[in-house]
Design a protein that fits this description.
A hairpin with a 5-residue loop joins strand 1 and strand 2. With 518 residues, the protein is mainly alpha-helical. It is globular and about 70 Å long. The protein contains 23 helices and 4 strands. It has a two-stranded antiparallel ribbon with strand order 1-2. A two-stranded antiparallel sheet has the order 3-4. It folds into 2 domains: 53 residues, no CATH class; 463 residues, no CATH class. It is found in: Cell membrane. Belongs to the glycosyltransferase 87 family.
Length: 518
Amino acid sequence: MPDEPNPAAADPDAAPRTLTPAERIAPSRHDPLVAAATRPVGGPLGEHAAVGRHWFWSPQRVGLGLALLALVVCWFGKASCIQQYTDSSGAGQLDWRSGRPFVAMCYSDVVPLYNAEKLDDPHTFPYVSSWQEDSQTSPDGTRYMEYPVVTGLFQWVNAKLAAGWLSVADSGWLPGALPVAVYFNITAFWLALAWLVTVWATGRTMKRRPWDAVLVAISPLVLVHAFTNFDAIAAACTATGILAWSRRRPRIAGVLFGIGVAAKLYPLLMVGVLFLLCLRAGKLRAWRRTALFTVLTWLVVNLPFIFIATRGWWEFFRLNTLRPMDPDSLYNAISYVTGWAGFDGMLHKGQNPAVLNTVVAVLFLVCVAGIGYVALTAPRRPRLGQLAFLAVAAFLLTNKVWSPQYSLWLVPLAVLAIPRWRLLLGWMTLDALVWVPRMFYYLGIDHKGLPEGWFLGAVVLRDLAVAGLCVLVVREIYRPRTDLIRLSGDDDPAGGVLAGARDQLRMRGFRRHDRSVS
């Protein structure tokens, strides 16, 4: 097999060489960090190595194997929060004494939600059943399941599986434990499977760069947040939807995006990104199919609950409207530094936080307009991964809520957008480390925790890192000769009908970029 080009050393003004279909980009040959990491297992891939000849260890299987190891590490990290102790009456209790979730940094929403969402009650059903709770966000104290339909049903099914497990355990056929511990382990199993699907789909989408899926597999964010909440479901739907689009299956892509939107709203951004790219390439027919099937799938999942349990179904949207700024948001950092609580003041008066919601909406729309400008004025049509990363990053940076596990959304998109190993591992490590000051901030200063300023400082560094990645992605969009994907000879591995398509619409920007056109 001929030697592969070295993108890192390529002349940015030289025309990229088109690789043959058998050629793959091996990061161990081009990235110093990866080359150093491979030394314990034999060093970088040799010039005359027979790539793709091993009977079992393909890049895909290596990535999945590493993902399994990472998920096991994550489970052990969360396991401290499902330990139990025996109280004075001899009953088993969940051991969250002395701030264990924060000291051990094992906190997971899955554990408290088992009781908070009444999943421990065998007579409840999501969106239909309600309960009373003292809450400023509910005028009469009535609460319902607060997650989108797919995520809510996912929790309920796992609760039923846990009840079935415990029933069999009572007869001696299975090991027993606290119901919440069994529920957590069952949930973790499905979330792990969802992340394995994400790794698989990303690797299949990358084509010439299958090893880049290892970044999704061993991401430090996976080590910390794979089981913090249920976001791996939406990530898997998004990754497989992009894979289906790359294989020119717009209807299947729409179905997968629709399921993802029914689990978490952010996959809807993929439909908007595809609209911009298809508008420029004159491929709106394929986009209409994807958009139609996205909407139809979402309706099929949601309509039964809209008609049967309208108020319960609306709970997710209602609570998101009333929700104050999250501790992890830039708005909270601004409020802390300036002392201005105007963003959040209206909530404490029993009204909707209209000021904050308006600011969030305006800033996001400005970012959307900017992304649209980039998509339509770049000298060469941006790749799907590039624009998708920009859209989701803009959504997170401008949103009033950035729960720590939301960063998982960016991981596969970042690998598709800018597969630079050192850069991405640096950002993901920094993002994952925000978990440490977050946990010790919640522990409280009275219990030897950290003051809020330390935590918010880490949040700002995280946001600056994501913003820096966005700047670099935009730079590569306007200078496609610096794009590692296009240096390898590909137009857009995830592009599907867009790959290699001629532009039908291109706006003239404020500057000319003729020297950057490939």
